[in-house]
Amino acid sequence: MNGRTVGVGAGVLVAGAAALSLALWSTGGGRSGGSPAPTATHSYPLSEPPRTIPSVRSATPAHGPGWRPGPDGRVVVGDDRLADEGRLLAGELGLRYAGRTGARAGDVALALASGSGGPESYTLTVRGDRVRIAGPAEAGVFYGTRTLKQEVHAGGTAPEGVVRDGPAKPQRGFMLDIARKPFTAGWIENLVRELGDLKYNELGLHFSDDQGFRIASTSHPEVVSRNHLTKAEVRRIVALADARHINVVPEIDSPGHLGAVIAAHPELQLRGADGRAPSGAVDIADPAAARIVDDLLKEYTRLFPGRYWHLGGDEYTALLASDPQTAYPSLAAAARSRYGRGARVQDLATGWLNDRAATLRRAHRTVRAWNDGFFAGGKVQPDKALQVAYWTGREPGARDPVAYLRTGRQLINYNDEFLYYVLGQPHGFRYPTGRRIYEDWTPLVLRGTRPVPERYDRQVVGGSLAVWCDQADAQTEDQVAAGIRMPLRALVQKLWDPGRPPLTWERFRALAHRLGD
Question: Is 251 a catalytic residue?
Fold first, then answer.
C-alpha cells in the first residue's frame, strides 16, 4: 500500500493514502449497539490517533466507526492468567466478563501473544466492531486496557486502527513519605488506582524516619509509632498495587534517619567526640544496630513481596562533618579494625550499606540507595548490583551523575530540581509543576537542568516523583493529591516516551482535565 507517515510523539502514525468505503458485517452473535452500524455505502474518514496520557508511541489509522462499549458487549480472555485484567476492565466499562471464550462483535478480547516488544508492550486493534488487546505478558495487556479506558472515557470512541505501544523506561515511579506524615490507607489506595491508570509501575513507601515508624511490626513493635498502618492495611495496598502491575518499593532509611528506632533504643545512638548525639544516626560500630535493622528488613520482605527495595543510605550525620575521623573517633577506630590501616568512616558506612544489601539479596531483592550514600575512593566499594537513586548534588560528597554512570551503574532519576514535592517548601525547594517537567525535563536530566550524554540512556532506567513531608501540616492529603496531579501526568509522559510530546502543554493540560481522575 502507498502510505504516509505522521509523527505521534516520538512514535509514528502510518496512514493509507486513499479514502476507503468499507462494508463491515458483524459475526458471531450480533452487534453490541455501541457503534454506528456500517453499510456497504457508508464511508468513514481515516481515524485520528488516540489521545491518552501517556500518549501512545505508534498508531496505524484505518477507516471505520471505531468502538464504544455497548449493552451487550463482553470482555473475553484467551488465557486464564488475564482474568484479573478482564474483570477489572469489564467493571470499569460496564461490560460483562465472559471468561475464556471466543470474541464476537461488540467484545473486547484480551490475549497473550509473543511480539517484538518487552513485557510491558501491547498491541491494541480496533476492527470489525470489536477490540483485541494482546501483549507478551499480563503487564502489557493491562496497559492496553488503560489506553482503551481513556479512549472511551465520557462517551468517547476508540478509533479504528492499530496501536503498538510500550514504555521507553522500565521503572516509572512515585514515592510517598508516610514516616513524617501518616497518610490513610484509603488515600494510598486511591493513589494506587490513579498510578495504575497512568501506567506507573512503582509506588515507593518511605515509612521510617526520625519523626515516625508507620507500619506495624512483630519483630520490634517497640519502634512503631502510635499512628501507623496495620499489616492488614498494607496487604490490601500491596494486593491492589499488584493487580495494577505496580511494585510497592519499601524504604527503611539507614544508618541515618532512624530517629524512631533510636527513641525506642537510645543505646544505639551515635555520639561524637564532643558527646553530642546527632539526630537520627545510629552507631554503625555497634552490632546491635545492624541486628535490629536486619530484623526489620527480614520481617518486611514477607509483607512486601515485590522485586525492589530502597535502603536509603543518605545524610548519615557522621559523614557530614568536615573531618569525620576526628569528630567520630569510635567510628574511625571501628573502620580500621574491620577494614585495615587507612580505612575511614566512609568505609564503615559503605560496609553497613553492603551488609544490608546482602540481607535483602538473600531475599532475591534488587536494591537501590540514595546517591549521597555512595562515596568516591575508599577501601570499601558499594555493592556492584546497587542501583543509584540520584536525587541531589547539594550534599557533601555528592558527585555528578556521570561519575556513577561511568562505573556502569543503573540510575533512577529523582532530580530534586524537578521531581521533589517537599511540603512547606523548606531549604529552597519549590513545588514542581507539570509544565516544567513536560517542557524542560527528560530522564537524562539527572542533576540541575542539564542532561547527561545520550550514550548513558540505557543506564538511566527510570524516574520517580517524590513527596517529602518535611513540614507535615503544610498540606492536607487532598492538597497533596491536587498538587501532584499534573506533575504525575507530565512525568509519566516523559518516562513512557522521552521525545518531544505530541501536544502543547495547554492541550496536554486540557486532555488531562477531560480525562478526569
Answer: no
